[in-house]
Automatic annotation (TrEMBL):
Catalytic activity as recorded in UniProt: Hydrolysis of DNA containing ring-opened 7-methylguanine residues, releasing 2,6-diamino-4-hydroxy-5-(N-methyl)formamidopyrimidine
SMART domains linked: Fapy_DNA_glyco, H2TH
Domain Formamidopyrimidine-DNA glycosylase catalytic: 2-93
UniProt KW ATP-binding keyword: no
Protein's name according to its UniProt entry: Fpg/Nei family DNA glycosylase
Alphabetically ordered keywords of this record: DNA damage, DNA repair, DNA-binding, Glycosidase, Hydrolase, Lyase, Metal-binding, Multifunctional enzyme, Zinc, Zinc-finger
Similarity section: Belongs to the FPG family.
Classification via Pfam families: Fapy_DNA_glyco, H2TH, zf-FPG_IleRS
Listed cofactors: Zn(2+)
Presence of the UniProt keyword Aminoacyl-tRNA synthetase in the record: no
Length: 292
């Protein structure tokens, strides 16, 4: 799933390659992906991409004041094409293509653009055409951006104070903090040396400060690693930079202990027992009570 660092890099990439270009057409292949009807997607035709922004995990292309807002969800991706002039006409079907955005040809005759694709059978990729990104429910409900200057230790202290949720789930809640998903929450908690099942309200002031530093540093480092990469290279970069997520059974880079996993119905988390849980493995909640 693309998270804050990947979406930030995609926004930067589109800023370099799409801003200043005119939208030729927006072809919606998977009708379930389009979540708005007024304005219609066709209204983007003829408009110029003037800016690209990020809101949490949402991409926002400003086209002369009309916004194309994209949420890639769990299995979606953006694929840039240097030339779509020879692309076959899109037809609704069972393939991964959901939306194609074609830009006007340049001086060489090449017509660049991008395609939004989604793997798997659970189709959650979402596209909105709106006059204001805040009209998108997911954007309007976002919590603070963890890379904004306003995200301070005091702000985080206010978030965790009195909250009886486990810290792993709290970090993933987009209404609490915007942009962190399953992968980077694992990475943040490993950097903070904190159990994923620690109750947020039990954090001491020092632990809140450590968690804040881990959030900011982990995300900022991931954004920097992805900076300037082509869209096609972002997935590999994300995977190569992870220390614990999706590395169950491998040695921890910090202490050498074996990274463990806890599986759930539709996801899994990874952690290092030595670094995060005092050497005690966490039990799978499907079978027994979690250790904290």
């Amino acid at each position: 799933m693309p998270e804050l660092p990947e979406v930030a890099s995609l926004a930067e990439f589109l800023g370099r390659h799409a801003v200043g270009r005119t939208v030729l057409a927006v072809d919606v292949v998977a009708i379930q992906a389009l979540k708005t009807f007024d304005p219609p997607a066709g209204a983007l035709g003829g408009l110029t991409v003037t800016a690209v922004a990020r809101h949490g995990k949402f991409l926002d292309l400003d086209c002369d004041g009309l916004h194309l807002v994209i949420h890639l969800a769990r299995a979606g991706w953006l694929r840039w094409k240097d030339d779509l002039s020879g692309a076959k006409p899109v037809r609704p079907g069972k393939g991964p293509l959901a939306v194609r955005v074609r830009l006007a040809p340049d001086d060489t005759g090449a017509a660049p653009g991008f395609e939004l694709t989604e793997a798997g059978t659970q189709k959650r990729l979402a596209v909105y055409v709106t006059r204001d990104p805040q009209e998108v429910p997911g954007v309007a409900a976002l919590g603070p951006d963890p890379l904004a200057d306003t995200f301070t230790v005091d702000v985080l202290r206010g978030i965790v104070g009195g909250n009886r949720s486990q810290i792993k789930g709290l970090l993933r809640d987009q209404k609490v903090i915007a942009g962190i998903g399953n992968a980077y929450s694992d990475e943040v908690l490993h950097a903070a040396r904190m159990s994923p099942f620690k109750i947020a309200a039990t954090l001491t002031d020092d632990q809140v400060a450590d968690l804040h530093a881990a959030i900011v540093a982990t995300l900022a480092e991931a954004v920097e690693r992805a900076r300037g990469l082509a869209a096609k290279d972002l997935k590999a970069e994300k995977k190569s930079g992870l220390r614990v997520h999706n590395r169950a059974g491998q040695p921890c880079d910090v202490c050498g202990d074996t990274i463990r996993e806890v599986s759930f119905a539709d996801s899994a988390l990874q952690y290092c027992p030595t670094c995060q849980t005092g050497g005690k493995p966490l039990a799978d909640r499907r079978m027994s009570k979690l250790l904290r």
